[in-house]
Amino acid sequence: METFYGIIETTSDALILFEASHLGIVQKVRRRLHEKERKELRSGSCYIFSESESGIKRWTDGRLWSPSRILGNIRIYVYIFINILLISL
């Protein structure tokens, strides 16, 4: 269900993807992800959604993300992976 898999490095890359989604060349997300789809998230997964079409106001996927960083015109979030080791005595 991801719109695109890869790296968006420039504003031009992002604009090309938005235009492709507008023209129906790539698929927009129309609903929140199901549990199985959330588990398929990977580095490089890109999702485009319209608030009015999807009803999604804020993206949530059940994962912990860093505060956003602005790089030019692109907002970047980094996935925070916490590996907890539980030891039972």
TrEMBL record:
Domain of life, per the record?
Answer: Eukaryota
Q: Name one GO molecular function term.
A: DNA binding
Pfam families on file: Gti1_Pac2
Checking InterPro entries in the record gives: Gti1/Pac2 (IPR018608)
Q: What is this protein called?
A: Gti1/Pac2 family-domain-containing protein
Species of origin reads Neocallimastix californiae
